[in-house]
Amino acid sequence: MIKEFHEKLINQEITSEKLTEDYFDKIEQKDGEIQAYLSLNKEFALDKARSVDKKIKKGEEIDLLAGIPCAIKDNICVDGLRVTAGSKILENYVSPYDATVIKKLKEEDAVFLGKTNLDEFAMGSSTENSAYQTTKNPHDVSRVSGGSSGGSAAAVAADLCAYALGSDTGGSIRQPSSFCGAVGLKPTYGLVSRYGLIAMASSFDQIGPIAESVEDAAIVLSRIAGGDKNDSTAIKSAETVYENCLTGDIKGLKIGVPKEYFAGVGLDPEVKNIIEDAIKKYEKMGAEIVDIRLPSSEYALATYYIIMPCEVSSNLARFDGIRFGQSIEKEAVINENLILQDIFFKTRAKYLGKEVKRRIMLGTYALSAGYYDQYYKKAQKVRALIRKEFEKAFDKVDVIVGPTAPTPAFKIGEKTQNPLEMYLADIYTVSANIAGLPAISIPCGSARIEGKELPVGLQLMGKWFGEERLLNAAHAFEIY
Questions:
Q1: Is 357 a catalytic residue?
Q2: DSSP code of residue 428
Q3: Count of Cβ atoms closer than 10 Å to residue 450 Cβ
Q4: CB atoms within 10 A of CB 434
Q5: CATH number of the domain enclosing 21
Q6: Does any domain span residue 16?
Q7: Is 172 assigned a catalytic role?
Q8: What is the pLDDT of residues 432-465, one digit of tens each?
Q9: Confidence category of residue 327, pLDDT binned at 50, 70, 90
Q10: R_g of the chain, CA atoms, integer Å
Q11: Interhelix angle for 42-57 vs 16-34, to 10°?
Q12: Is residue 148 flagged as an active site residue?
């Protein structure tokens, strides 16, 4: 889609202004039902579009992303625009700076349509934890779009933007992409700067693209990847043009299939059949299918849901009602008996949601004296073990495949009363975050449920900083 739009722009068959207006028209027609966007930036977007059109008329060379309208998950900062992270505590917060990924996209003259909905502070698997609205699945509006980047995935799937940015802490790009039938890429930890992403769990968080095709995801990744002086975990790497790595040739590629990903309870039988058919297609394309074992993967979810809340409890301490965001400070002025501690407690009690409070409490408990060694330290040891198992597996194979999610999109409200059941939606995705691996979800078929065709995603995981091979393997399946 991106290359097609680019060709039409430089040939002056269309203008960026008209393209942008068309997307706003679609949003007006469809987003009332889907609710993918939290805010729109129409004048901001049209001004940028007009400036790109002027460059084209002058004969200036433009980037592939120039003038192409996109959407941004609302936990990524854009200078001068509101950034809520899906929480009431940041309802009126306007970012005073650009995230590094935004700065890079602005340098390429990308057009930002608006900010998309998410689970509060990216904590959730269904976008039902947003303090503002629940984003619906474009394939069946009675079902969830997935989470936490549900707004971005739904916007791409409903053609309400050309591509979107999301963030992935335990599957938050890949799982909603699977549910909505989009392509979602979580890059290697450190390939893309996290500066300007409102932190949830800093050793897991990663920004990545959600797009209609693997090629589009590769184009966006080429522009947002690289080192950053503002993020010490962002690694300066060769400026790879990822879209040029998509040859479609995977003959001899060794694809690992973990036994554990197909033996667990909870994997929908229809999803299992679709994934197994996808693996057979790879075999027909000339790839070598290798059975592998990842025995510690059964502990991945438990490991993630100990370490992640610990980091959440630390990162969210800054939302205290004093420095920025919403506060009950005015009440404190009226009531002289309120002390500073009361402002902390009452502000957080009033403006933070149920799931956010749950994770803060879990993390604080796991880090407390007497439990640190029993929970957090032990989980970190298991994390190291899981990483070692992936290292061993990648000595034998080039790519690992499996389901992105155990089921297609579930009904809105189906899992909200049982947090543990909701957490199981991440069972196949958290391992990549634990180990810091690159992983991508691509559509590989659909399951027919209650008369609706619901997308199913195939997940591919690659070696650290092996995005070229990973994207090519995904692209080969897409064009087969």
A1: no
A2: T
A3: 9
A4: 28
A5: 3.90.1300.10
A6: yes
A7: yes
A8: 999 999 999 999 999 999 889 999 999 999 999 9
A9: confident
A10: 22
A11: 150
A12: yes
Mode of pairing for the β-strands spanning 69-73 and 111-116? parallel
Does residue 227 contact residue 237 with C-beta atoms inside 8 Å? yes
Q: Is residue 371 part of a domain?
A: no
Question: What is the structure's pLDDT at 369?
Answer: 87
In a domain, 475, yes or no: no
Each residue of 379-404: b (16+ CB within 10 Å) or e? beebbeebbebbeebbeebbbbbbbb
CA distance 31 to 244: 34
In a domain, 150, yes or no: yes
Token pair 């003259």 is at which residue?
109
In the structure encoding, which two tokens stand for residue 211, read together? 């797009």
pLDDT for 158-190, tens place per residue?
Answer: 999 999 999 999 999 999 999 999 999 999 999
In angstroms, the first-to-last Cα distance of the chain is: 18
* DSSP E strands, 25-110: 37-40, 69-73
16, 48, 73, 152: the active-site residue: 73
Catalytic-labelled residue, pool 145, 149, 152, 172: 172
Under the phi-then-psi rule, with left for phi > 0, alpha for psi from -120 to 50, and beta for the rest, what region is 253?
beta
Contacts of 476 (CB under 8 A, 6+ apart): 248, 249, 250, 282, 285
| Alpha-helical regions (H) of 35-134 | 42-57, 100-107
Domain count, the chain: 1
Q: State how far the alpha carbon of 193 is from the alpha carbons of 113, 170, 198, 288, 464, in Å.
A: 22, 17, 12, 34, 16
Tokens encoding 315: 């990162």
Burial 33-49, CB ≥16 within 10 A → b, else e: ebbbbbebbeebbbebb
Taking the model in full, what pTM does it have? Answer: 0.95
Q: Is 123 left (phi over 0), alpha (psi -120 to 50) or beta?
A: beta
**CA–CA dist 145, 166 (Å, integer):** 13
Question: Which has the closest alpha carbon to 409: 175, 133, 168?
Answer: 175
Domain of residue 77 covers: 2-245
pLDDT band at 336 (very low <50, low <70, confident <90, very high): low
> Do residues 424 and 405 lie in contact, with contact meaning Cβ atoms separated by under 8 Å?
no
Are 330 and 347 a contacting pair, CB within 8 Å? no
Active-site residue, from 16, 125, 145, 148:
148
The secondary structure of 433-457 as a DSSP string is HHHT--EEEEEEEEEEETTEEEEEE
- Beta bridge partners of residue 94, listed in sequence order: 82
